[in-house]
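Weekly sync notes, structure subgroup
Attendees: PM, AL, DS (notes)

Item 1: joint prediction request from the bench team. They want all two components modeled as one assembly rather than separately. Inputs as received:
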Amino acid sequence: MKSHPDDEILLAYCGVDRLADRDPAAATAIPLAVEEHLATGCARCRLRIQEFEMVLRKLRGPRLTGPPPPWIAATLAKIPPAETAARDTVAPGLLRRIGGAIEEIRLALTLDRRTGMAIAGIRGSAPARQLLFESQPGRAGASLHLLVEPAPKSRFGLRGQLIARFAADDGTRKPDGPRRAILEVPGPGPSPEERSCRLSPGGEFRFRAIPRGRVRIRIESGGRLFLADPLDLG
Amino acid sequence: VQRCIDRSAGAWEELLRRYAELIYSTIIRVEVPPDDREDAFQSTVLAICSSLERLRHRESIVSWIVGIAYRQAVLRIRARIKERGVPMLPESIGDGGSPGELPDDSEPPDALRLQLEESQQLKEALERLPERCRRLIRLLFFEEPTPDYVEIARREAIPIGSIGPTRARCIDRLRRIAVDQGWDV
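Output from the run, pasted for the record:
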């Protein structure tokens, strides 16, 4: 064989399909012809065979599977708008000293679901919305669990629990200071209104009759300020 | 990536068009229970969203996404395990206080990461092929059971005799893309 074998022949040699089933004579003749050609020292065909074998191996390897299409739309709807990103200059999990006393920890939204698992200290009744904010996605640290429940007159109830380790974070125990949750809710004017409530010893809090719109929670606890991503209600 | 950070119109749709399969496949490979897969998928995307600005080496985005999806998948499994017996205590996740069924939630095993990266590589290479080649390769390699030549010829409206040469041309195109992308032989 003086010229190079066709790619079709090289692919048959690489076992692109079950040639023996379709053409037993070719299945015997092709390997002999290709090996005879390779024996002449043809580096081009030897490399081409290796490359074809690599491509076939990948084609036959595990393939990616797509999620159900509705998940994509549902997930896209939950991506916070750019305003959120611009406002939050502190990365999740990063501590920022404010005035030398209070440190700020940003809590990023990592779970938003309509129904499902019970969360620590909270018993929900459907239809409810369960949300999880974490200081660093998927890792230990501070987390804020929220349960949003519909309330009469197009309002919402919000129950939450902050779970955080203080002393273990940086080896220093911060002064306790006030332990309270502050909720920014849409007000009648252009500026949001603020409501606040004390945290229970377990870090729990509750707000009632929250109007529809964008709300934002921040929690002062253990000498730190926990700032959650904004949340759209309704 | 920058368009996603800026929330440009269509940027997240495009990111998910490219990587939704990678995320979902990671979640499946970690064996997240079916009921928790949507949560794991969603929380992965939200985690990507909140940390995309800190992705330093944008050429390693595939590996980075696999890492995030893996950690979110492990987190969901741990939460499910705790839900069954012990109250859910998120502060113990990942600090050694876990139930013990999952040894490590920090990084995916190398073999898993490599396999997923290769699968993503193949997906991206196939997207660079002409539509006709993509269809033929799907029929020949991905469809179960593989249709016979008569069926392929009927569905693609081509003579049976041209299947072999067309296949060779398509695989050769894929080979050239693979060489261009530096796949390991």
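Discussion: The longest helix of chain A spans residues 43-60.
Action: AL to compare against the crosslinking data before next sync.
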